Amino acid sequence: MLSRVASSLYWLSRYVERSDGILRMLKINYASSQDNIQAFTWDPVINIFSAGSTDELSAVKDDSRQVLEQLLFSRENPCSVINMITLARENARSVQEHITKDLWQCLNEYYHLVREPKLRWYVQKDDPMTALDLLGKQVMLYYGTADSTMERGEIRSFMSIGKFLERSIQSVDILNTKFTTISSHPDLLMDASYWQHLLLSLGGYELYLKSYRGGFEAEQVLELVMLNSDFPRSAKYAVKNIQRYFERLKSEKNIEDYNNLSFNIGRLHSTITYSSVYSMKAEGLNNYLYKIRNELYGIGNLLNEYYFANS
Amino acid sequence: MGSVNLNSYAQIANTWDEMYIAGDRMREQYHQIIRYLEQESASDLSKKEELAKRLFMSQGITFTVYDSGEGIEKIFPFDIIPRVITATEWSFIELGIKQRLKALNLFLKDVYTNQFIIKDKVIPAGLIYSCPHFLREMHQLKVPHDIYVHISGIDLIRDYDGTFYVLEDNLRTPSGVSYMLENREITKRLFPDLIPQCNVRSVTEYPAVLYKNLMSLSPRAVSNPTVVLLSPGMFNSAYYEHTTLARLMGVELVEGRDLVIRDHKVFMKTTTGLQQVDVIYRRVDDDFIDPLVFNPNSVLGVAGLMSAYRKGNVAIINAIGNGVADDKAVYSYVPDMIKYYLNETPLLKNVPTYSLGNHDERAYVFENMHKMVIKKTNESGGYGMLMGHAASEEEIEKYKKEIRKDGGRNFIAQPTISLSTAPCYIDGVLQPRRVDLRPYALYGPDGITIVPGGLTRVALKEGSLVVNSSQGGGSKDTWVLSC
């Protein structure tokens, strides 16, 4: 496969996954903003998804509709949903002949949907949840279509690696933001709804209820999001899948590069596997999350160097 | 309510109409379509028009217009009423195009090797050597199977009496074939069952024939040569077509930056290292194909590609330097080429063409500017054209001045041909609009194949004679009947 194609497939997946992450966050946060929850703030979302240009957003952070509008439709914010979708589509466009027509159509519809004036109207004047739901459904359609139409093999591997890498980075980022907020607002540590939100925005709420009885506790949330091997958005699950799809790229032609990157992924997988809530706390949660995040970025950089011919 | 009101169909005087024989007798090939349309209500047809737009949009069959920052996606206008060509008309077109392509291909081989046609004074040497698309870099370069014009899209038009004329040969990188394929797919959705009922011939074999030809041109004798389609990239207006063809043939779509030359061989950069490329179907113009030989500022091509080509290590489709046979001034010699190389009488006519380098012809043209179309020899796409019948005195004077200054080599004049009209569904009624026809011919080692169909371009603006998409043209599905 062409290096450029591999790179586009990988980024296509990353952008779709990122848009999915933002949409989930927005949906839950919007819901809680309507719930009159004590100390609700858009700050964590703004911190994660405004790529440094926080001023404009901070100015409107008490107005949910405006925050949504900025994070969904602003062309200036590089992390806005509309920009994510546009980038995903641009990447797809340049590899159209490698993805199925169904998948291309699905992405194309996603793109036309986010540009529809009606959607903006929902956010500005009507029920913003409708807009978020419509977009969310389109992402699910994308994943379903990718799963049932895309060929297995190299294409799928690069797409999956992109997806899981992005997902694990997001989960780690969300944990990091949530736990950092606690250091300045210690009372939130015991606030059940605070943790409930985190789980809802990651889609791990039901699994948590099944796994842990007796209310929401920070440590259990941490365990679920980092270490649970059955939770599709946990760091452990995502890294296991990065490893799984990367192994399929093994080829004698570039065995040295392969081994090198395989070593890095394996090391990260072990780090997570042989961690416990206890060991994370002993190391310092911030340090730990920071380390994992760096490892994830390192994998992205090596892919770039070895497989996408950008060196 | 009968929907298609044929009474309002106002034929244009002195013009061949594809549906009507003068008066109100309908040509037989349109009976079935009209019968079908009569069963639909006007709102049904408008719904079909909407459906067509939606299908084009959701499939991303669009081109992007960049103004005021954000790109606007537009679809190439599509008229839902198919244009019909009878079996008899088609077999004539097919023979005519094959004859013409054989001669043009021999001409290209000749002009880049022995130049007999110049030595025998059939075509003046000055005309060839002054053509900017005549590339000395191609001199004595051996191309596989002596084929230069692998893919061509010859533009045909019909005069008032229905005679077919060749307007342009398009031997470089003709585009639009994806619209031939997509238009048919859309029509299948719009008019269920109508295509088999009307005995319309299929166009779906095009990518398979093209792929077979490309494979057979591989210079390396390997069972599975690497064929790629070289595109300028996603900002090119024909990018959708490039991806469609690559997908339908299952070949890799590459950009210049994906290729490198090592030891006069072409390789592509893959996730597992370099892989040799044998055949390049390029959609990049000659001038941009190799910065070492042609335009040094080009980033669309591959440095060193010409050396690999000259060594015979890679096949390039279409051959480089075809523009010399495409030049509008050389065009007027094609009937002579047919006689010279094939000793045959040309089947398809040329539009009479006046060379403005010749004093007598120029004087005649200048006297009759209102009946003429003046074209620049090296422009296409409807640019650099003066339509005499619609031009102001001022514009005419400006052109005359330019022609005098140039000496006339870079201009030709042709009498205005009253293009034939076909019915179009516009604003809820059928209206006649001017059309042309571009069938696509594939020239391979086993001969010439012309897929029965083509692109019918239509001048959607009322009264317009220019069908180019850059000038407000659209397209139609084109049906060739099997009986």
From TrEMBL, chain A:
Cited Pfam families: Alpha-E
Top-level lineage group: Bacteria
InterPro entries, A to Z: ATP-dep_Glu-Cys_Ligase-2, DUF403
Domain DUF403, residue spans: 1-308
Protein name: Uncharacterized conserved protein, Alpha-E superfamily
Organism: Chitinophaga costaii
UniProtKB/TrEMBL annotation, chain B:
Pfam families: CP_ATPgrasp_2 (PF14403)
InterPro entries in UniProt: ATP-dep_Glu-Cys_Ligase-2 (IPR051680), CP_ATPgrasp_2 (IPR025841), UCP005522 (IPR016450)
Every Circularly permuted ATP-grasp type domain range: 82-459
Domain of life: Bacteria
Protein name: Uncharacterized conserved protein, circularly permuted ATPgrasp superfamily
Organism of derivation: Chitinophaga costaii
